[in-house]
Amino acid sequence: MSVKPMRSMLYVPGDKPRAIEKARTLGADAVILDLEDAVAPEHKDTARQNVREALRGQWPCPVLVRVNGLDTPWEHDDRDMVLLAGADGLVLPKVEEAQTVLDLHVRLPLWAMIETPRGVLNASAIAAAPGVRGLLVGANDLARELKTRPHPERLPLLYALSAVVVAARAAGKQPIDAVFNDVRDPTAFARECDQGRLLGFSGKTVIHPDQVAAANAVFGVTQAEAEDARNLLDAWNAARAEGKSVATYRGALVEQMHADQAAETLAFWQDTQSQAT
């Protein structure tokens, strides 16, 4: 099943009703109402009720819920609420093996968080599990378990990041890059988005309203890219009409795979433009 690429997935703490309400207006491709790391233990029940109420309203985008882990006191109540309240998907933290997903038996799209070395090693099997729509990198926990040090280019994490991309793409699922913690540094955030797209991620999880538009821009399609894709398709279709199996565009050889990629680019552009209007 083809799913629209998620350029931005905005985490919103479940115990912050005003932030939840504002999230409806920010233009994220998906909102993740968070019951896990962003919510203190004493606020878990209140957050769950807030999320239940929020899911009753209309949203302009898919709304997912990140539940607490399977080894916590809250996981059963979280999952029951998500199943009954009409969420568009469930985000499961710290998935380390495919069997965890298989044992859930939920009737919702699953987004598995890869946050540990074991999760990275088993990412291919996790991505291939039925019901999984994508893999989300949890870089903070992963870096801690790997005992790495911070680096502006994320060099200690590059193997793990690429492993998640390869696993997700091989299974036909979406790889989503990790959050960027310093909300005061938009330049560094944009640079990390560029790196994520270069690595092959579909989009990025974000934690601040100001990060949404930047992620949408980097992981989206520009008007120039759309026009280039349209021109390439025109050249391809003209060649095919003449009975040719290849074409040339701007001096480069064009084959079927290039035409398919251009068609995907153009379709994504058209989809995002219709959403904007």
TrEMBL record:
Pfam families, per the entry: HpcH_HpaI
GO MF entries: lyase activity; magnesium ion binding
GO biological process: oxaloacetate metabolic process
UniProt: Mg(2+) binding residues: E115, D141
SUPFAM superfamilies to which the protein is assigned, alphabetical: Phosphoenolpyruvate/pyruvate domain
Cofactor(s) for this UniProt protein: Mg(2+)
InterPro entries to which the protein is assigned, alphabetical: Aldolase/citrate-lyase_domain, Citrate_lyase_beta/mcl1/mcl2, Pyrv/PenolPyrv_kinase-like_dom, Pyrv_kinase-like_dom_sf
Domain HpcH/HpaI aldolase/citrate lyase: 7-209
Binding site for substrate: R66, E115
Keyword terms, alphabetized: Lyase, Magnesium, Metal-binding
Name of the protein this chain belongs to: CoA ester lyase
